[in-house]
Amino acid sequence: MAVNPTGADMKAFLAVDPDQPIVMLNLLRFADGGAARYDAYLAHFRTYAEKVGAAVVYYGHGGDPIVAEHGQGWDAVLLVSYPSRRAFSDMVRDPGYQEGTHLRTEALAEAVLQPTAPAG
Question: Quick one: average pLDDT of 82-86?
Fold first, then answer.
């Protein structure tokens, strides 16, 4: 399963409204030993997120689900606020950011990366 967006994913993402502010929902399932590796990724990530005006809203480890099918629980949830879809795209294209994405890839067995916008 892919844990990083492809070029086609990013093109479709930007086609919606590149200037729309978003909060990116990250649902994370760690590989063996991945939690520590993800912490290293987050330290790297924060540097580049700040450059584009993004901020971590929440990062927490998941507990046992109360309502879910078997296997639907996640190890962690990360919410990041971006001033625009374009800001997210700019960050992931940054060569310095890309140098650390191996940490994320190595940390995760599975992930969902879903942009959200305020309802209403």
Answer: 96
